[in-house]
Amino acid sequence: MRLPTCLLPAATGLLSLLFQNVAAHSQRDRINYISLVEDPVIHTPSRRVHAFSNFDVTFSLHQKNQRIKLSLEPNHDILGFEPQIQFVDSEGSVQEIQSIDRHAHKVFKGWAWVETDAGWEQSGWARIVVHEDGAMPLFEGTFTIMHDHHHVMLRSNYVQTRHPSDPALEDTTQEYLIVFRDSDIGRDIHSNLKRSSPIERSCGSDALDFNNDPDHPLFRPVVKRDQSTWASMPLEFMLGISKRQNDIGGGGSGGPTNVRQTIGSTAGCPKTRKVALIGVAADCEYTKSFNGSVQAAQQNIVNVVNTASQIYEQSFNITLGLKKVQVVPQDCPPTPPPTAPWNAGCGTTQNPGPSITERLNLFSSWRGDQNDDHAFWMLMTTCSSGPEVGLAWLGQVCVTDATQQTDRENTTTQSVSSTGVVVRTPQEWQVFAHEAGHIFGAVHDCDSDLCSNPRIPATSRCCPLASDSCDADGRFIMNPTSGRGITDFSACTVGQVCTAMGQNSIRTGCLTNNRNVVTYAGSECGNGIVEEGEDCDCGGDELCGSNRCCDPKTCKFRDGAVCDDSNEECCRGCQFASANTVCRPGSGPCDPEERCTGKNALCPEDVHKKDGESCGSGLACASGQCTSRDMQCKVLMGGRLDGNNTRACDQSSCNIDCYSPASPNVCVYGMQNFLDGTPCIAGGVCKNVSQIPIPSRIVVLARRSHFITGLLYRKLLWKRDKVVD
Q1: Is 434 annotated to bind ligand?
Q2: What angle do CA 407, 710, 257 make, to 5 degrees?
Q3: pTM higher than 0.85, yes or no?
């Protein structure tokens, strides 16, 4: 099947090779041990808290052998961006839209302390949601002690997600709290929730076509900006991948990006806090798992995002903010409705519901119709497919449309967008963080199986522990299987994602600035968000550190300061940067650099030259890149066809079809699309899924098709202009 004429799915240049599903998540090992939470006390005069309280909570673990204190403050980032919840019926029709009441959600962040003989000793971070306060408080979330995650769960939620091999609890209707640690999770050869298969094994995403595409911008090389010959540049340059910097080694066409060379690099990640506004949908089975309570399902989603956001903040300087939540009733429809095709039951052994891959496909197609600019959408369900408990498309953050694609055999059509699927488990937030990592462009960490095939780490299909050590030993979020001791993203993942952002191989345009944000709480000094009435907000005493510009107690500029270096691109030493200071480097003749004005702390808007404007002999601007149809063919196909004189087969389609004079009757269909703004014949341009405007005359090429080595070769039977009325 050929892609529709003039389809251009991603301005970032994610190549639209036609593939199967995605990146998967974990197989859950059994929990060997749990501890009851004993003597929990909220340290306020009334033992009560509200959504904007600052307080401590203490409790005991391990039969009172360990005392814990959590020092908590409101986390306004998660629900601080005018979030909505949509209530829909079983047919997918929206019945009611409500703003999420910030006062109703007691969402907190802070620090964990352990009591020692010398007093309280800080040992990690905490993310907590309080369900009930008073004399018998109930709360859920995660905190760390010496990098060991401690997961706090209600008894009822543990029972709902418990695997038969996990420890059993007393059969009672009374609610109480339990804790299990990552170190309590055992590796069991009969474990049942493996992340889906990588190359030549049953675990990981690396063998899946879309995420394994060698022409994916995350895997292709980057050429230095001072390269003298446009014709020898890889397509990533024209797609903006080398826009900001050249962190990744390699060069020429066809060589892979080397993640070993960017391990630990944060160049490319935002220097000032950005916010990724996201949407989350919960299907009927997910709501059913909370005994049909839409409110409980919504509260759990808030808890998951609150916890997952912590590692994105510390690793990438990006907050995950809930913008929209859609929850459906627990009664699953007999047939999923067109308005919510992903809302299907798990089915039975004899009549199974959609697989997790099919759910992702349906959800991606639905997401493309939502007309929003969210960074991504995540579907929450309880329906796993055998071992798989999560899937996501690689590197699709900020891709709001859904691109229809087929697999290599031209048999199955799938939709690709910024979406993922998460199955409910006791470690749900880690699955969520893992799948969101794929959406941000992260591949799996290398493990012993992946390292056993030298081709996989050599082509950056997994992230090694270090430049001279392959196996990451299952210690990080992007590990292909869940296990003990998983606390953070690996240094390799940080380098890969930051580099991808800096080089524009993933989109980042949907990430919002942390400035003039409207929150339901009103102005709340110390939440890290610069709200109305505040000059700055560096996040409170703990996070502000040695900030010389912002007073963390008043959220006003310190004496003599006019801006905050940590939050604005054109601020240097608490003063406006001088005029003509480069705040955003350019990438070529169609994307000039931006400079500070000297009168403002914000970098001017990123402006490209107009599509179609001449930028060289036979070249014109398209999406900020200086290119032409023939040029895009040269850099894509030049290494695959004889010589580097490749040309476009026609001037009408927005699919990249190329040929070489050395083989004049063979047209190579590259299974990707020309850049947005590339001219079509008679004045049209490629734009999203169509030519705008559709020209009155087009060139028609009749071809006979067959696949060879992953590229679609078409015999040219004839080539002539044909007038289409």
Answers
A1: yes
A2: 100
A3: no
